[in-house]
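Entry:
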Amino acid sequence: MARNIQPVLKRCRTLGIEPGVMGIDKSSNKNPKQSRKKQSEYGLQLNEKQKVKFIYGLLEKQFKHYYELAAKKSGVTGEMLLQLLESRLDNVVYRLGLANTRREARQIVNHGHITVNGSKVDIPSYLVKPGDVIAVREKSKNSVRIKEIVETNANRVVPKWLSMDKNTLTGKVITLAARDDIDYEVEEHLIVELY
């Protein structure tokens, strides 16, 4: 399995992303490099695509698959793409506060600590639907690491399209994410123009 092992802060600086979007509280001391050369239209489009891929931890083939799914859906393709990416199980686990970063959420799902509607799911790219109940497995609730994560994220605000019960470590998908629920700056129309 391929994975991205680039330094997160360095990549955030290059793409112009705040590290908080990635779930990291650190900041970089270096200023983003100022480019004297004006970026081309293609460069802007490519930068937006790379930014979204980096935030969700996807590689090119998987990202293109999500774009093709979004293009087949009725509605604005860019918004459908972001909705699909937000409804990935690893992203939902991160949004519910059951992980500090999306990378950690991916690992928690991979290791089988999460159930969807009572069944164990260990596929981070699993797409959740409205009404799905996401919970931490009974065996995993006593884990020291899970307890630390829950204590750390006790004050994290859960998006309005999800609901979370902190006592039972259970969350529910109320609706799919809307464009307003995206908490980072992205110009999805540039990604659509690129494809």
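The mean pLDDT is 82.
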